[in-house]
């Protein structure tokens, strides 16, 4: 900054000043441990069977100015003390440490001239060591998360290609949609469509269908209606079609779905299968012989995930619809409670149980005293 200023280059001098200010502000946010602790190094190790994680904290003028964690792969079942001794030497050299005091989580011998190694038990130095141990454990946790994520990603990717081979599909099913129906003795019939892309749920594309043209519990007709509505709209809106459709059910549900695809001229454009729950039997549109996949197959596991997710999504919506309809029908029988009041109670409480057990003051605030009295009288 001073060099630029001396050369009358005030614009660059100002830029350097701003950088200095930013650095000062960043440094002021460093963890200040103690004004009594000057320049020391802190090392802690967190170990497991095949790997060890060593954290290094560099302290200057009582503040943590550097935190660095390294991962060490064990080759000959080395003990923690040997690993720590090795890493301390490397990191002190890498970061040009001149500290004469080293705090360690394990007892190691000092082989560095004039350097004292301490294993603190209490006080600010022990707090520093605890911080370093937490950093090492955090690194170990992050590695495990990464391993799990990588494993799941690989499994999902493998499952898509395995499914293509298992079902002898023409196209790799990067986009799969699965359908399931739900009703209770024919009441409140609904259907769910869940969407998986690249083997993962795409929840923003999930859809629920309230059955409109079918009376009573008729899974076949319901499936026919839902498939038709779903893909008629997809064609009208020019949306991307899936490479594979899965229907939860056996040959009957599959045949009903195919009827709708025929009406839309999509039979040879989208692969479709049905899966029956008991034996996990796979049915095809053009083959009378069902398929039984290996129970350990990644392809079957992906189909099961889709089927279970569709079932969960359909059941949840069915329960909400049933609860709402139950509340509406109960409120219709109360003289003086009209549709506007009913909608307020439904949107606010969600169920009869919640509304009837609510505080009277809350009900009065929502629908007024006279209607609250009418409502509560019904459930006394």
What does this structure look like?
This protein has eleven helices and 13 strands. It folds into three domains: about 35-165, 2-Layer Sandwich (Nucleotidyltransferase, domain 5); about 175-320, Nucleotidyltransferase, domain 5; about 335-380, no CATH class. The protein has about 375 residues and is an alpha/beta fold. Strand 2 (about 50-60) and strand 3 (about 65-75) form a beta hairpin. About 50% of the residues lie in helices and about 20% in strands. The model has no long low-confidence stretch (mean pLDDT about 85). Strands 6, 7, 8, 9, 10, 11, 12 and 13 form an eight-stranded mixed β-sheet that branches.
What is the gist of this entry?
This protein is of the alpha/beta class. The chain has 11 helices and 13 strands. The protein has 3 domains: 36-167, Nucleotidyltransferase, domain 5 (2-Layer Sandwich), CATH 3.30.420; 175-321, Nucleotidyltransferase, domain 5 (2-Layer Sandwich), CATH 3.30.420; 333-378, no CATH class.
């Amino acid at each position: 900054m001073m060099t630029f200023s001396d050369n009358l280059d005030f614009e660059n001098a100002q830029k350097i000043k701003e950088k200095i200010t930013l650095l000062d502000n960043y440094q002021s946010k460093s963890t200040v441990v103690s004004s009594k602790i000057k320049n020391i190094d802190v090392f802690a190790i967190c170990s497991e069977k095949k790997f060890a994680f060593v954290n290094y904290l560099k302290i200057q003028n009582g503040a943590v100015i550097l935190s660095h964690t390294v991962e060490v792969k064990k080759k000959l079942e080395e003990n923690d003390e040997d690993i720590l001794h090795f890493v301390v030497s490397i990191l002190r050299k890498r970061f040009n440490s001149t500290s004469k005091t080293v705090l360690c989580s394990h007892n190691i011998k000092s082989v560095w001239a004039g350097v004292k190694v301490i294993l603190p038990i209490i006080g600010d130095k022990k707090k520093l060591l605890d911080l370093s141990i937490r950093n090492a454990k955090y690194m170990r946790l992050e590695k495990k998360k990464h391993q799990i994520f990588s494993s799941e990603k690989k499994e999902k990717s493998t499952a898509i290609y395995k499914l293509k081979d298992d079902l002898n599909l023409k196209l790799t099913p990067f986009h799969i949609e699965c359908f399931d129906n739900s009703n209770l003795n024919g009441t409140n019939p609904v259907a769910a469509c869940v969407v998986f892309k690249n083997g993962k749920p795409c929840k923003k594309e999930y859809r629920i269908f309230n059955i409109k043209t079918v009376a009573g519990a008729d899974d076949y007709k319901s499936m026919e209606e839902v498939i038709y509505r779903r893909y008629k709209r997809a064609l009208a809106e020019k949306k991307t079609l899936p490479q594979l459709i899965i229907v939860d059910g056996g040959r009957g549900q599959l045949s009903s779905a195919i009827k709708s695809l025929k009406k839309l001229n999509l039979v040879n454009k989208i692969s479709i299968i049905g899966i029956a729950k008991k034996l996990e039997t796979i049915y095809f549109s053009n083959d009378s012989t069902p398929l039984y996949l290996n129970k350990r197959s990644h392809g079957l596991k992906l189909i099961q995930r889709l089927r279970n997710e569709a079932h969960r999504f359909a059941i949840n919506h069915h329960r909400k619809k049933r609860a709402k309809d139950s509340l509406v029908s109960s409120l219709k029988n109360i003289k003086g409670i009209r549709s506007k009041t009913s909608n307020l109670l439904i949107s606010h409480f969600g169920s009869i149980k919640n509304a009837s057990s609510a505080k009277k003051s809350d009900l009065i605030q929502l629908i007024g005293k006279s209607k609250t009295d009418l409502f509560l009288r019904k459930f006394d």
